[in-house]
Design a protein that fits this description.
The complex is a heterodimer of chains A (479) and B (195). Chain A is built from 19 helices and 8 strands. In chain A, strand 5 and strand 6 form a beta hairpin. In chain A, the strands form 3 sheets. In chain A, strands 6-5-7-8 form a 4-stranded mixed beta sheet. Chain A has 3 domains: 115 residues, no CATH class; 183 residues, Four Helix Bundle (Hemerythrin (Met), subunit A) (Up-down Bundle); 116 residues, Nonspecific Lipid-transfer Protein, Chain A, CATH 3.30.1050. The radius of gyration of chain A is 34 Å and the shape is elongated. Chain B has a domain of 125 residues: Rna Polymerase Sigma Factor, Chain: A, CATH 1.10.1740.10. Chain B has 8 helices and no strands. The two termini of chain B are 14 Å apart. Classes of the chains: A alpha+beta (479), B mainly alpha (195). Chain B: Keywords: Sigma factor, Transcription, Transcription regulation. Chain B: InterPro entries: RNA_pol_sigma-70-like, RNA_pol_sigma-70_dom, RNA_pol_sigma70_r2, RNA_pol_sigma_r2, RNA_pol_sigma_r3/r4-like, WH-like_DNA-bd_sf. Chain B: One of its GO terms (molecular function) is sigma factor activity.
Chain lengths: 479, 195
Amino acid sequence: MNEAGRLEAYDEHETDGEKDYEERQHEEKEYEEKEHDGQEPYDGPGEGKDDKTADDGPGGPGDGTPPTTPSPDPDRPPLIPLPRASVEDGGRPLPTPADLGDPAPRPAPLVLEHRVLKALLGAWALAACSPEETAAVEEHLGDCGACADEALRLREAVGLLHQPESLDLDPALRTRVLEGCLERRPPRIPVPGWAAPYDAETARLDALLQDFGDAEWHAPVRLKWFEADKETSRRTTVAGVIAHLLMVDGLVGIGLGLDDPMGDVTADRPTPAARTEAYWRTSHFPPTRSVRAPWREQSHDLVRTVSFTGGTAGRLAISYGDFELPLHDAMLDRAFECWVHAEDIAEAVDYPYTPPSPHHLHDMIDLAARMLPTALAVRRRTGLASPGPGRHLVPAGSPGRSLRLEIEGLGGGEWLIPLDSPAALGSADFEVAHVALDGAEFGRLAAGHVSPTEAAAGQVGDREAIRDVLFAAASLSRM
Amino acid sequence: MAKKDAPPRWDRRMQQRLARGEAAALGELYDRFASLVHGLAHTVLGDERAADGITRDVFAHVWEHPDAYDPKQGPLRSWVATLTHRLAVQRLRATETAALAQAGRGTTEELERRVRHASVAARADYIVQSMPVPLRAALELAYFQRRDYRQTAVDLGVTEDEARRRLRLGLQLLSTAHDAGAAAPGAPPGYGGAV
């Protein structure tokens, strides 16, 4: 409670400007440098004319000084198209110089130097000048071929601007494109099958983050999980969720010998929650969009590293502080968490998000199903589940009392969960209960996002066994 | 943004990893360039499915021929954009030619005009995406938000001189989209690393 309160207060610090400002300064600097060694290649042939007009004093608005430039030939055709608005109205001809003498429809042209007028051409082409300046530029274009050429060019360039269409790439396209490539040229160093769900889920989440503005990055998110059979939650922001993923994925990185993204920050314990809390606590500002790049870089590094070491290191133990998972299961676990938190984020910003591809979803469910017997044992040991009257211990490796877990939908399947000991084998002959759930619903149950008593599950058989398995599934969740 | 200024080191390393047949590198390549490739293809072809097809072809080409890219010739990003442009324009010309032959309406000149138009539009989109952020920000304010250059200067926190300069320079960069002319179809300008 205390902790949550602190984070809420801390969230008020919307000082993300800091980083963005730095980024902008950096970009501006680069831009300046580019400018200076880029010697403005676009001035064109008009450049030499600067000297001619350099001595002309700038005329003030309405000071009555007549134009110092010679009058254009009245018979000369207009050199430039009209400003954009007029062109859209239907191509009226450029006013003749005689019209310019008429003060009523047009303001009196300012008298400006060639240099000043030339500098205005961009703004003029975009119809972003004052009426006086527009008139002065257009007057000048009648006289100055170089400026007229550039004016035409810039006006045409304006026609190329349009509102960018925001096209969301279909995440399934990535899988199709990559598979197509790998069929044409089989990889010498493939991504191991057990790392493919992580690769796909991190890419999907990254695509979701693509167009997020500050409002989305700071949208509140409530992380939810089950602890000791109770719903628990923790408030953070979208950026805070990405920081959480960065910290927990980092456990796999540490196991593989990659740098710990925590850097100098130290956590009380090397658990997912402690690492996340330590990172949140010690960052000077609430996490901003700047966490995206390190998170994405780490996820790419993980996929790359396991591709090289995967064949031999699939059984390498990854420590989560309180427990360990073999590397291949840890990568599945991280894929699952990535999906779960992507859904949290999508919900927070009201975007749609779909479940993983059936094949990947199946692998994630399989991991959860394999973890259930141990989770059941932990519940018995901690007194959350009483050893029921039907409990029947069998020798390790023998078939034991089992629950049939049926997952419906694409990516589903059936698993026989041994109920009385992780050492027993699931067996259809000793089936005492049958639970049926949709795949995504099971995912939400195992993520602690729906309560075991509310999960939409079809149930037949031993009620105690069913209750235990559903609560054990929820207990797989953590921050 | 940081991605756009990625050092050539990333490009070289990526090429080496692709050449070595590392599937993870292909995924990273896709993650970095898919939206660029798909966007350009969509601008040229105006069709989602066709743009998907070009995306598939571009990545297949890079994956199968990683050595075709020469880091000395410029950034990988420009090379990928040029390749996308070439394949998309080829596809557009092929479908338009087929349509012309089938319907018997329209002329080759019209076809060429459409192809040229699509081609310029795609280069323009690329230039806008790749131009220095301060220039793009100025153009966005003046064009999309209809701010005059004085308001643009205030919004950006720069002098009026600087706002005028950015608008002009931005349009000058953009105008190079027209410069392809009859240049070799293999190398449409506008995808240079300088932009």
